[in-house]
Structures are given as C-alpha cells and as structure tokens.
Amino acid sequence: MKCLIVAAGQGTRLRERGLLKPLIPIKGSPLIERVMERGRAAGVTEFVVVSGYRGEDLRAAVDVLAARVGVAVSHVVNDEWERANGVSVHKAKALLAEPFLLTMCDHLVDPGIFQGLMALRPEPDSVTLAVDFNIERPLNDPEDVTRVKCVDGRIVHIGKVIRDFNAFDTGVFLCTPGMFAALEESQAKGDDSISGAMNVLAGWKKACVHDIGDRFWIDVDDPVAFEKAEKLLDAGQL
Known about the structure:
Elements: E1 2-7, E2 25-26, E3 29-30, H1 31-42, E4 46-51, H2 55-69, E5 72-77, H3 85-91, E6 100-104, E7 107-109, H4 111-118, E8 127-132, E9 147-151, E10 154-159, E11 167-175, H5 178-188, H6 194-203, E12 207-211, E13 217-219, H7 223-234
Parallel strand pairs: 1-4, 1-6, 4-5, 8-12
Antiparallel strand pairs: 2-3, 6-11, 7-13, 8-11, 9-10, 9-11
C-alpha cells in the first residue's frame, strides 16, 4: 500500500531548530525519516511525498534517504503550498487510484496505528480516520489538536474549534479515491483543508473512524511537542 505524506508547509513554529521542518533531526534522524520508518515497519511499500516550501531541497534530501534505505518514493509538487493542507492531498490525485494511507510529515505515531488501518476493508468512496478517544491524555496540546465528534463509528463533525467532541484527530487516514471528490466539494465551498473534506464525507455518511486504543502518537508542531517526542522515542513508545 502507498502512503501519502504531506510535507509542503513552512513549519514556522519549529524554525529555531531548522529551516525545513521535515528535515529537522529528532534523536539523530530527520523528522520525515522517522515518519517513513513507522510506515515501513507497518508494511508500506511506497511513499508519495508532497513538497512545497523549499521543495527542491526537500526532494533532494528525500531522494538520498530513499536510496539509502531502499524505499520507493514518488514526488508531487504543490506550488500553492500557502493554502491549506487539502490542496497538497488533491495534487497527488493522479498517483493514487487505489486505497492509500495519508499522514503528515510532523506526526509520529506507533506503527500499530498504520497497521490497524491497513487491515481494514474500507467502504467504497470512504475515508477512515484514526482517532484517539483518550482526550484526557496530556500528550498533545488540546488547544491545538483537531477535535472529532464520533457516533457509532462515524464522524459527525471535525474541526479545531468545535465544542462538542469525544476524540482527537491523529492525522493518519485510510483513504479511498473518494477523498478527492470530497476535497473538490469542500474547496468549492471555500475550505481547502483536509478537515473540510472530512466534514463533506461526514455529510455523505462516508467518514469512518478507527480507534487507536492506547497507542501513542504526537503532532511535532512546536518546541514543547518536540521535546515530548524525544522522550517518547527514548522510552521506545514511538
């Protein structure tokens, strides 16, 4: 199965650690390499990386990484990288005709989360989001994480500012090509984000959830989260 990695943004909140967020070393390895390691451990056979900001530098570094570890990587260029993350996903449409994993270049997750999604048989035209129902665990910033309202295994609503929620978005998805139709519908309504597409899918009854249980994950989006991720790596929990 292919895994799409969104790596197009600037990552300004980690600028003090490096000019290009996916290449910032964490415990000796670039952040994007850590993401790919976890995908490979789960059985991912090919990665599609969407680059934007300083894209030439990132693509060159990822090619060196791919050659070193022996993994297949395809590149997608997002020249509209200042728009929301759904644009990056849509740019990869031509390369993803079958179900695929989707993740972010700054989300480190237990490989078991990928494995759990890969074991599913997705409904036609659906997208399944790995969600964390443990909303009291202080690992991720509750003011920054994307919130999800789930009912009977499906998403009712998703967004950063919704008040009625019972889970967190881990940033890892099992997508069918139905994701692209939802992105197009959301963009037509003025929302370029992945969450916007998931809300469209929720309206179509095609937004499903996968409970990650007690598995660890973290959005490495700022210095505080970076330090937490280092401790999790030291402890072998990621």
